[in-house]
Amino acid sequence: MKTREEYIESLKKLDLQVYLLGKKVEDPTEHPVIVPSLNSVAMTYELAQMPEYEDLMTVTSNLTGEKINRFTHLHQSTDDLLKKVKMQRLLGQKTASCFQRCVGMDAANAVYSTTYECDKAHETHYFENFKKYWERIQKEDLVVDGAMTDPKGDRGLSPSQQEDPDMYLRVVERRADGIVVRGSKAHQTGIVNSHEVIVMPTVAMRPEDKDYAVAFSLPADAPGIFMIYGRQSCDTRKLEPNADIDLGNKNFGGHEALMIFEDVFVPNERIFLNGETDFAGMLVERFASYHRQSYGGCKVGVGDVLIGAAALAADYNGVPKASHIKDKLIEMNHLNESLYSCGIACSCEGCQLEAGNYYVDALLANVCKQNITRLPYEITRLAEDIAGGLMVTMPSQRDYDNEKLKPYIDKYLKGIADVSTEDRMRILRLIENITLGTAAVGYRTESMHGAGSPQAQRIMIGRQANMEHKKELAKTIAGVKKK
């Protein structure tokens, strides 16, 4: 397994084509806007080297029999599913941000089982392709991004009906040695910090959508791939000289990017689906369910940090014993643990698939993510309530560093006597970072739209709820005669 240092050095060897704020980035591992997100991924390597976290962060591979980072694991039991969620909570607590490796792990487990069943139905060879590929990922301990979301264009039209056929990523040429693809994938969390990418379809497909029913892997620096880094609230604060207090979370962060595939060649051994429209929907649903489970861990870990910051803000304001403050903190914990309970529940109720790996309970995973679209918003509202208006009106670090202004800021923004004004400012900036700033995209907005927007979960809950069974239960209890 790689160390933190080996991971960063391996990224430096890639020829990633990245654009940020209109300029090409020469070395993404050293750009001040990107480095915090790099640190978050690096934490997944750092914790895996620590004996106290070995049980959560590492596991024995079913493919090689070797010890591997859990982020490259194919789940072999419900215990694996549970430890995945616990690992994600731990990393959320350590970074208070998105650590970016979950999507690749979830993509791998979905592709593994789907290719197995596709091969049985169509006599294809995708399962062996994927197994060989994933063995290398495990042995080299690589970061793999999962790319599912297409721009979609006119949402009322299917992929093949779009005015611009590139609104969904598609095969534009089939050759004896592989395929050529064109299109883009949006909102790609962590792609700039990834060695590889697994591309998947984003919706179920009809026979006429054959060219869009494609799944494959590529190096993140494959010819024809480039990335446009996403803009985040407060992101240019990282470019400020001696940036520190104003950042809220100086060391960690997340990122998303628009990923462009401009006529990119994919060799046969890296193809996992190629026109089998009847398996596109299975791949989408399985990935989505795994990823909706993930949110019951990562968002809860960040929630732990936000709750702690809100409690500190109350302490520094001198009101930790106020009954309404206590009640708000209790409510925040109640909501956060409710989210965690859903992640644990869908893991415990998981089952083994034909390929041998384990799958979450899809109904409970979708309930988990549906709650994620709501409860973090209430947690952040309560955090902002407790923090007070100073969180968004206090002076900048530049003002605080000004010799003339610093004494006045220290004097008039003081809270309780034994806590410095600077420490009070730091905690308020952390709350701002998570609720409104650069981490808000990974905590609030991603809670809404990540792994499918709210309606996607409601559709799945409707499919999985087994209403006819519930009707029969009611008939039996009520004594309704069956026809």
Question: Would you spell out the secondary-structure blueprint of this structure?
Answer:
Elements: H1 4-12, E1 18-20, E2 23-24, H2 35-48, H3 54-57, E3 58-60, E4 67-69, H4 78-95, H5 102-122, H6 126-140, E5 144-147, E6 170-175, E7 178-185, E8 196-199, E9 214-219, E10 225-229, E11 257-267, E12 271-274, H7 280-317, H8 323-348, E13 351-352, E14 358-359, H9 362-372, H10 375-387, H11 390-393, H12 397-401, H13 406-412, H14 421-435, H15 440-449, H16 454-464, H17 467-478
Parallel strand pairs: 1-10, 5-8
Antiparallel strand pairs: 1-2, 3-4, 6-7, 7-11, 8-9, 9-12, 10-11, 13-14
Protein name: Vinylacetyl-CoA delta-isomerase /4-hydroxybutyryl-CoA dehydratase
Pfam families: HpaB, HpaB_N
Domain HpaB/PvcC/4-BUDH C-terminal: 280-479
Comma- or semicolon-separated keywords:
single chain; 483 residues; alpha+beta; Butyryl-CoA Dehydrogenase, subunit A, domain 2; Butyryl-CoA Dehydrogenase, subunit A, domain 3; 2 domains; six-stranded mixed sheet; four-stranded mixed sheet; 14 strands; 48% helix; oxidoreductase; Vinylacetyl-CoA delta-isomerase /4-hydroxybutyryl-CoA dehydratase; isomerase; HpaB/PvcC/4-BUDH_N
Task: Put the structure in a nutshell.
This protein is an alpha+beta fold and 483 residues long. The chain has helices spanning 4-12, 35-48, 54-57, 78-95, 102-122, 126-140, 280-317, 323-348, 362-372, 375-387, 390-393, 397-401, 406-412, 421-435, 440-449, 454-464, 467-478, and strands at residues 18-20, 23-24, 58-60, 67-69, 144-147, 170-175, 178-185, 196-199, 214-219, 225-229, 257-267, 271-274, 351-352, 358-359.
